[in-house]
Amino acid sequence: MVLTMAFAAGAADLSSKALTFRSQIKSYLSNQGYTPSIDDDGDVKFKYGGYTYYIHVMEFNGNLITRYMVGVNVPDDMSRARANALCLKVSQNKICARSYLTTSGKTIFVELDAFCSGIAMFKDMFSVNMQLLDGVSDGLIEYMQE
Questions:
Q1: 87 close to 100: Cβ distance less than 8 angstroms
Q2: What order of strands is seen across the sheet that includes strand 63-73?
Q3: CA angle 103-88-115, nearest 5°?
Q4: Given this model, what pLDDT does residue 38 score?
């Protein structure tokens, strides 16, 4: 994955606009019954359906971007080559979603990026983005079981 430095900036580099947006996301998730927190690298972290999800807030050319992320555990008996092949298989033909094997080889992260004009758009798109992310991660789990 290749990102420009401005796109990959950490939470410490977020503008006040992005920090406010992240806070609004956390409040929205709380109001929806989740128990979100801000993790060590600045992502909004919450549990849903037995999995831990993360929402990373970024800025690119003055626009807000949300990156939804969920990790899927790789079975102990699965080779790195097979896990990498599954990442490619599950992400092919996806425009804004991708998956990659972490350096430990124990987790595949599935990610979905979405431009977001602010909290109103986030609220409107949250369930759709979660469904899209779950569709990719569920597909990955199904491929693992084959």
A1: yes
A2: 37-38, 44-48, 51-60, 63-73, 107-116, 97-101
A3: 85
A4: 95
- In this predicted model, what pLDDT tens digit does every residue of 18-66 receive, in sequence order? 999 999 999 999 999 999 999 999 999 999 988 999 999 999 888 899 9
Average pLDDT, the chain: 89
- Name 96's Cβ contacts closer than 8 Å, sequence gap at least 6: 112, 113, 114, 132
* Residue of 56, 135, 71 lying closest to 103 (CA atoms): 71
Q: What is the DSSP string of the chain?
A: ----TTTT--GGG--HHHHHHHHHHHHHHHHTT---EE-TTS-EEEEETTEEEEEEEEEETTEEEEEEEEEEEPPTT--HHHHHHHHHHHHTT-SSEEEEE-TTSSEEEEEEEEEESSHHHHHHHHHHHHHHHHHHHHHHHHHHH-
